[in-house]
Amino acid sequence: MNALLTPTAPRTVPERLGWMLADAWVITRTSLVHWVRNPLLIVYSLLWPIMMVLMLGYVFGSAMTVAGGGDYREFLMPGMFGQTMLFGVAATLTAVSVETAKGVTDRFRSMPMSQSGVVLGRCLCDMINSVLELALLVGCALVVGWTWNNGPAEALAAFGLLLLLRFALIWVGIYIGLMVTPEAAGVAWMPLYLLGMLANTFVSPTQMPAWLGTIAEWNPLSATVAACRELFGNPGLGGDSWAAQHSLLMAVAWPALIVLVFLPLSVRRYRRLSH
């Protein structure tokens, strides 16, 4: 009869880091396999942004004006990029809550796995999905006539800011997903739509009532979208507030603050889950 061997827990910092990264990759690969085996999920997550681009760009675009002048589709696309990164929170939240309800999370916690690695693996999986979504959306944008007017370095910086926002919001999704049921996660779209609309995604805050424009200018999504428009060289006036005038700074500061708050909260919440 063979005896079961329990792996020795790593003691040094390099060993713990290697253990965490190895377990994170296991979780990432498992989540990606699950994602690939759900074709309807792939179709929805990848085609929904394209449908939004076609509807807003061609159906409503002819009736929209850009503050300061310019083509509306060039104004729209950075907003669509940012909104897609925002809506990814719902996918993260739902996946985490379903795994928790089905006992998958408890199974991971009962195994000799790095607890930080499990949470990091969820983040890596969602980042890979986000890169694919953003690449497909950029391809669609180029087809409908959008382009960046500055150099490739500025464009890469803008894409980096979009993925930075998505990285930060993943930790929000993980933390909330560990707290709510799958049924409650299903209504996550409602506040996300509100947050996405109260921003500079579709219209400039200068075209809103003063009090609403102020809220939109301080929205973290607005900071990323305004910074991307600036880097892409696309039209759009941000506003007169301090946040609007320093969009590049805020596009880094907001995600950094979100990560500093929700990353440790996510790891702490995972460690304290009841069996």
Report on the structure:
One of its GO terms (biological process) is response to antibiotic. This is Transport permease protein. Keywords: Antibiotic resistance, Cell membrane, Membrane, Transmembrane, Transmembrane helix, Transport. It comes from Streptosporangium becharense. The chain crosses the membrane at residues 39-60, 80-98, 119-144, 156-178, 185-203, 248-267. This protein is mainly alpha-helical. It has one domain (21-271). Helices cover 73% and strands 0% of the residues. It contains 12 helices and no strands. It has helices spanning 13-36, 39-60, 72-101, 104-110, 115-143, 152-177, 182-185, 189-197, 210-217, 220-232, 242-245, 247-271. Helix 1 (13-36) packs across helix 5, helix 2 runs antiparallel to helix 3 and helix 6 (152-177) packs antiparallel against helix 10 (220-232). It is elongated and about 60 Å long. The mean pLDDT is 83.
What about the largest sheet?
none
Described by the principal axes of the CA atoms, the overall outline is elongated
Query: What is the helical fraction, as a range of percent?
Result: over 70%
What does the oligomeric state look like here? Answer: single chain
Organism: Streptosporangium becharense
Family: Belongs to the ABC-2 integral membrane protein family.
Membrane topology: Multi-pass membrane protein
GO molecular function: ABC-type transporter activity
